Amino acid sequence: MPETDSSAQQKISQNGSPTSDRPIVVKGARVHNLKNIDVEIPRNKLTVVTGVSGSGKSSLAFDTIYAEGQRRYVESLSSYARQFLERMDKPDVDFMQGISPAMAIQQKTTSSNPRSTVGTTTEIYDYVRLLFARIGKTISPKSGKEVFKDTPKTIINELFEELDEKTKFYVLFPFELREGRKPEEQLTVLKEKGLTRLLHIEDESMIDLTRDDYDPESIEPETYRVLVDRLAIKKDDATRSRIAESIETAFREGNDRCSIKVRNGKEYKFSERFERDGMEFLEPSPQMFSFNNPFGACDECEGFGKVSGIDEDLVIPDPDKTIRGGAVAPFDSQKFGKYLRDFIKVAARDKIPIDTPYKDLDKDAKRVLWHGKDNYAGIYGFFEDVKSQFYKVHMRVLYSRYRGYSRCPECEGYRVRKDALYVKVNGQHIGQVTEMTIGHAREFFENMELTDFEKEVAGQILYEIRKRLKYLDEVGLDYLTLDRLTNTLSGGESQRISLANSLGSSLIGSLYVLDEPTIGLHPRDNNRLINILQSLRDIGNTVLVVEHDPEMIQSADNIIDIGPFAGTHGGEVVFSGSYDELLKSKTLTGKYLSGKKEIPIPKKRRKGNGKSLVVESASEHNLKSIDAEFPLGKLVCVTGVSGSGKSTLVHDTLYATIQNKLGTWKDKIGRNKGVSGIKNIEAVEMVDQSPIGRSTRSNAATYTKAFDGIRDLFANTKQSKIMGYEPGHFSFNVPGGRCEACQGEGVQKIEMQFMADIELQCEECGGTRYRKDILHVKYRGKNIHDVLEMNISDAIEFFVDESSIVNKLQPMEDVGLGYLNLGQSATTLSGGEAQRVKLAKFLSKTNTDETLYFFDEPTTGLHFEDISKLLKSFNNLVDNGHSVIIIEHNLDVIKSADWIIDIGPEGGFGGGQIVASGTPEDIAANKDSHTGKFLSEILNDS
């Protein structure tokens, strides 16, 4: 039916932007497991898509709606532009209408580039560079005074301020011998220009060049100046004009330099060059502050901030020690004690506190300690002495003991050339600004004191910086520093940075599709995130969020629940409507939200096995030398607001130290004074969200070893024995039974030279990966390809009599992964799915060793129903004599723990302390704990 004028009519929304009333309509969507569904999404509203894991939420939101929005955008470009873009297939859908330009904000680390930082990713650093180039003041490191170019006007103003009326003075310029000229030739040139007097700068004696009673060879350029004029201070225009002319002449003839010598008094030096105190400086430009530009990057570290050399953490293993108390490890010996004694002498003169812990010393004191001063060579100088004796074996061994990556000594880790660090705005150079957290930086730029001229020059730049910092602060990232590398961010942090960038762009009329933005966010900060999404909606955008968080679902204008279950048992719209309507529905989501179904609180907390692990004085990153006890034989949950130090304590300190003791750790270990109780565990496993395999050949069946049993089963069939097939013939990883045209990949990659490579289904095997004769072998009517296409739930039913296979697959069903296909490539699994596959592998083992398991936010991507299954798996591990430590924000997991360690109270510098530790009831009773406030509501409601 043709569209009527009224249905296509545009209206003007409250903010004045043209928007359409038409909803986004999807009819007959069949992508992945979607079962020909119809969906209607209201425009300019916040819509949440929820449902159990694997039900088809992402298939609808990303693979259908977002993919079609992107495809239509690409199709709208010119044929020239399209050839450089990856070909995008049309989603399997009958009809779509009302799609806006779409942007996806997914759970992916923004960049793996070691040069990419929070500042560069958000464009804040680009604006800061421009700000420093436009209003930055270059400060001389020698005198601490501002560097600027002198002009006749500024010189006259200074003279009239400094000198009294009628004070007599000379206008001079330096006498310099030009290269290739003799003194008498230089003097002849001066005489020809009418400059016939030389003034001795100390006794003010004159040499008259028109006379012959002087020896040109005896004139020392350093002690003589060429006289341009003799004048006196008079406050009239004629005198000012004459002084200005004389100074211009001096600058022109003196190679941009001149001086004013008060008769029998002081000499004032001036320069039209950008110099001061005998140093010439570079004039600020945006390129000078870029560590990604060869002009601005530090020559020593090439803009990375670190160099291969001496590792500070190895030289100063315990920053709590004082210099006198042996903080510098190589100096704490009789052989090299001389260096310590030399430093103590310098410290006595410069009043450097040698009885203060190293970590509390200011930067100037540390600079002297490392770089040296006077007779003290410094730590770097010490190692240079060691390198000069490399012909001795023990010196090479000594040097290797302290070798590693350290802050670049040239730029001090700030990444930019030295000249850039001389430029300051409000007393801070660009390196000090990027060291600030987003919260501190916002305060710094909001309270910046500027002159009227600076406000006019930098007004728009500051507006852009403040706007971006405001959004980053509001999405709960105030604890991140601007120089934090983006490849060290979690998926949730990366997603929130992308969200803040989108808000900063102020686009309207767009479709934003987000994938669980609450990941990694403490319940305290959920409202801040919800407000951000609502403001994105309010300026005229449609926001589509895949989410499980109850608060986010409650705040939505519209909710779409996909289910009823996962995989082939999902892919249907089981509910669409408001939150109040959802509470009355009979869907799994509705039952959990209404309280008809719930994850029960344990009736009693486990007492553990009486043993524990104790971390002493953990001080890595923002940890404040804390002691933390982790009881064993319990389900322990480490909580706290984002950036409080949970991962630093658990991953970088506890796990790394245990692995190092077991001899399997080569990376850096978080600073601590020791971990006791390691003898109480026999093995340790880290179950994180890293991929289970980087190859497309890796899948859940191969990872859990279930595929071994499946191949044996097919090899034992009557047909295989007749044909002489071995288990290897049913593997797509080795020659034998696999299709050699695609080498068992199922697809063939076609290189397109300057265009993106494309993958086409293998014509030889039709994407099945195997030779046709192998596919003729069947077990219960299914060939090996059919089995790999089964999901885990169906496979368990299919192999019900084969315990060796079922025992490997059942744990995956137990952790809520029954919807995954056996042959689904590991590279397509989300971080949460990969983590649960690893958990299933451990559950399938009959491990009798007392093992300590670490989990990092295992509820990522999980529905309430899946969390219930996950908790049963954790409890099985603990009940079997193991210990489990989880980093988690999910309140259902926290309330089910036996012991909680709450870190905080805030993120970044405001965190790093243990706010409370104990049972969930203990934490709920603690008024200082943010986690406790939310826990008390849950425990009191139950």
TrEMBL record:
Region span, Disordered: 1-23
Localization: Cytoplasm
PROSITE patterns associated with the record: ABC_TRANSPORTER_1 (PS00211), ABC_TRANSPORTER_2 (PS50893)
Domain of life: Bacteria
Domain ABC transporter: start-end pairs: 331-595, 608-936
Keywords, comma-separated and alphabetical: ATP-binding, Cytoplasm, DNA damage, DNA excision, DNA repair, DNA-binding, Excision nuclease, Hydrolase, Metal-binding, Nucleotide-binding, Repeat, Zinc, Zinc-finger
Feature: compositional bias, Polar residues: 1-20
Family annotation (Pfam families): UvrA_DNA-bind, UvrA_inter
Transmembrane segments: none
GO molecular function: hydrolase activity
Family: Belongs to the ABC transporter superfamily. UvrA family.
Protein's UniProt name: UvrABC system protein A
Organism this protein belongs to: Rhodohalobacter sulfatireducens
